[in-house]
Write a structure and sequence with these properties.
Blueprint (H helix, E strand, L loop, with lengths): L1 H26 L10 E5 L4 E6 L6 E5 L5 E7 L9 E7 L3 E9 L5 E9 L2 E9 L8 E6 L5 E6 L9 E12 L9 E10 L15 E7 L11 H9 L3 H5 L13 E5 L6 E7 L10
Parallel strand pairs: 1-7
Antiparallel strand pairs: 2-5, 3-6, 4-5, 6-7, 8-9, 8-15, 9-10, 10-11, 11-12, 12-13, 13-14, 14-15
Length: 284
């Protein structure tokens, strides 16, 4: 009899431990939630990832307007990663929609707004002696009908832009030098902004005027050969249409450095093209 009692108590003890382990696992799931309820992504060229760091990791997605947004969820299998998974957001067309995320275990529900903006490209200026495109400013070039641009200071990027204007890429031609000169197409960027007689940024009530910047592709101070490809991919500039076969350059190391000068001046601007995000609520 004593042996039967001991066996019974042992079985009950195992049952209690098993139940306690299950309860601990349930209690270890943190509540599901997001710190943000608003996201922006640019149209077409890349995507934004939302990390899932709480909840069960077992979630489902519902998109209000699937013509605007595509969302895919992937679980993280790496135990060393503190993420449980991530949601990749892809913009299909301009507009705003809502994404509803449901934790299938905790039953928590989060709804976030996602806005798909025009595609754009950033130009972070590292060195410059120009009075407007100064060192430490970031130029955002937007691929929309009016070819808008926004100029921010890098230290205060979440403040209002220093200036908003329009931009345009065009080419000029140079026959070069030497006994057999070859016709070269020189890419240029035109920015409109109000300026005073010394070329400094002026008050916005002064009429904006065009200012041309030449993108350096040859010589000692040459931009990366990938600069033109990035401009074409993100901003829709068709260099072949503008310059035909006259716009060629030898392959350089992979980087996105772009050097610009102002013709007939000593101004030189050196920066890097990147896909860094513009502050939220700036673009339509």
């Amino acid at each position: 009899m004593n042996k039967l009692i001991i066996l019974f108590l042992s079985i009950m003890s195992l049952f209690v431990v098993a139940c306690s382990d299950d309860d601990n696992k349930s209690e270890s799931i943190t509540p599901f939630g997001f710190e943000k309820n608003y996201y922006e992504i640019r149209l077409g060229r890349d995507h934004t990832s939302i990390s899932i760091t709480n909840g069960s990791g077992d979630i489902s997605l519902a998109i209000e307007d699937e013509e605007i947004l595509k969302a895919l969820y992937s679980k993280c299998n790496d135990k060393e990663d503190n993420r449980k998974g991530y949601i990749d957001l892809y913009g299909l067309q301009k507009g705003a929609t809502t994404l509803t995320i449901t934790d299938n275990v905790t039953k928590d529900v989060e709804t976030v707004e996602v806005k798909v903006t025009d595609c754009y490209l950033a130009y972070a200026i590292a060195h410059s002696n120009h009075p407007v495109l100064e060192t430490g400013t970031i130029l955002f070039l937007v691929n929309n009908q009016t070819r808008d641009y926004y100029l921010f200071t890098e230290d205060n990027i979440y403040n209002r832009p220093l200036v908003k204007g329009s931009s345009d890429f065009f080419v000029t031609f140079d026959s070069g030098i030497g006994p057999s000169p070859r016709l070269h197409a020189i890419p240029n960027l035109r920015l409109t902004y109000p300026s005073d007689d010394d070329g400094n940024l002026a008050n916005s009530n002064i009429t904006a005027t065009p200012h041309d910047f030449q993108i350096e592709l040859w010589g000692e101070n040459a931009s990366s050969s990938y600069v033109l490809e990035a401009i074409q991919a993100y901003l829709g500039v068709d260099w072949i249409e503008l310059a035909g076969n006259a716009l060629t350059k030898s392959v350089a190391p992979i980087d996105m450095t772009m050097i610009m000068t102002v013709p007939n001046t000593a101004y030189q601007i050196t920066g890097v093209l990147s896909t860094v995000s513009i502050p939220e609520h700036v673009l339509d």
